Fold each of these.
Amino acid sequence: MTIKVERVSEFKHSDLADLVQATEDAIREGIGFNWVLPPGRDVLETYWKGVLVVPQRVLLGGRLDGTLAASIQLIKPGVTKETSSFSATLEAHFVAPWARGHGLAKSLLEAAERQARADGFSVLKLSVRETQEAAIQLYEENGYIHWGTLPTYEFVSAKMVPGKFYYKNLEPITTLV
């Protein structure tokens, strides 16, 4: 099995269909993604196409044997966020169930950190459902610091699910002054 992580700036060949399928499969497995059930292929296709046209979003895709099966997004602050322009946010970090266990999640996280550093960011932020134990373990093992929990993070299966908030300093903040 070969894995590859790359910046996605356009969908080629079956990439969009593969990413939509991976997203549907991951949602069914409970990864979150702000849905409990997949919303439909047309909604997911529109979502992923939209990601590519938003200048503040960098989509990194993970391939397993050539198939786009995972993602992470680096969200840059907009121009109205001058006082927090040193930090970016990670979102939509997931791996399709069939592609797990090959290191894609960690490879995507490391690639997002490299991209954030290259783009001049000093801090990365993220949040995750408390039920996402594998993701929490990955973030904590890679130096992300848990700074808070929101008991009413998401409403899933007729109950509130807490969410955990993390950050990671990519370089000392003092270098910004």
Note: The beta strands are 3-8, 57-64, 67-75, 87-95, 123-129, 145-156, 159-169.
Amino acid sequence: MQREADLIEEVARVHGLDKLPTTLPARRSAVGRLTPSQRLRRRVEDLLRDRGLYECISYAFVSPRALDALRLGDEPVLELENPLSEEQSVMRPLLLPGLLDAARHNAAHGRPAVALFESAHVYRPGGSLDPPSDGSPAGATPALEGQHLAVLATEAVPGGWRTDPRPADFFSAKALLEAVLAVADVDWRVEEGGPPFLHPGRAARVLAGEHELGWLGELHPQAAVAWDLGGAVAGFELDVDALVALAAGEEPRYRDVTSFPAVLQDIAVGVPVEVSAAAAVDAIRSAAGELLASVELFDVYSGDQVGEAKKSLAFRLRFQAPDRTLTDEEVAERRAAIEAALSELGGQLRA
């Protein structure tokens, strides 16, 4: 016996299960509700359905060849001792293979334009799979079972009678990711990198603080060919359990809507091509302080006008104070601080 419930079961068995009275639980105890994880999962699933994505339900087993095609053959996986077939001999470590199978099935039947998602469990080794010598697992869990959410799309916007369809790409997948993480109300960012099955230069890691939530990007062309898919294939996959843990922080608080007007300014800065827009935004926010209500990137340009190995980033800045109307001097001071911070990144304001 390992738990309190084990002792209770033994007492009931010795006393006689047929002697226990049959009663209904009290109404107060019978009332239940969804857990935070269930609520968040339903909200993001509904959000993706509202945006026209179709939900998939795939097998929890994958083929080792599928993981090799995704360049994940060296990762530890849970292999079945008695699989139904070689194609279903490994517990899936991620949801992507099932979505790729669904996309290939649709393409083979004349429907190559798809936008799919799946919310389900993934499995990874969590310890030794050998049985303990004393015969009791003592609550040990050799397999780690987690909830993931994955999106895969070959089409971002379907065509109409006046417009052509727009294929999926990194930015269309990022737009869906932004909507999902906005529902969770989690501060997040992306950094260059990601799993080996993503296209170099079109891949990113999704981070929240020091926690890695998943990946975002376009599928590597070689991986797409392995599933007989042509054109760009984009998507993302998130660890929902990690997302729930981050979203379970402080309750959102009401923020008063100020009646004082905002000061809007647009700036364009030329920076080296290796400087990311995220790094520029971080520099702007750090320099501007609390008076900067928002900063938005609305244009990226590269060409002869900005010089070789440079690009132009255009930002819209909104300055606002909750208790007063800002003066020109206050805004100019913050603007000078922003220019100094951008210059440290090698940036220079454009006229």
Note: The chain has a mean pLDDT of 88.
Amino acid sequence: MRRSGKRKTAKQHPADYDQVSTASRQLPVLLHRTREALAVRFRKVFLQHDLTDPQWRVLRILSQVDELDVSRLAQRSYLMRESLSRILRDLAARGLIVRRVSNADARRIFHTLTAKGRQLLEEVAPAFNPVYKEIEARFGIERIEELNVRLSELLDAIQLPDEEGV
């Protein structure tokens, strides 16, 4: 006896699918698409200065502290240690950061921004102003401020306890 081409499949959606709002389901997609749209705008500036977004993130973080170890830098930058190692090596090769082995524990490596790194930050940072101005003109500063408040509240609501302060 020949079987029909139709197979029984598992339910497409879990039983509680209908209990979650469409708005909640759209949130991750919209946040990701927004982040990517912003990245496109900022990437133009990075390319002009031979930087990547992750490299810029590391430089900005290091500009706010005297020095930082790799573990803490990975947490603050939201970069995986493997990617961060390559980024740190590239930034060091360009003379933008220096590394120091801890006196107390040779396994701990600290990184510091160099004068050349600070100079690059001071040169590049103003190049982002037109991007910010355009976003403000299109969306409105009040709405941006409100969005910042709401996104901070969302982060507080969903962040796991071991991720706080990262």
Note: The chain is about 60% helix and 5% strand.
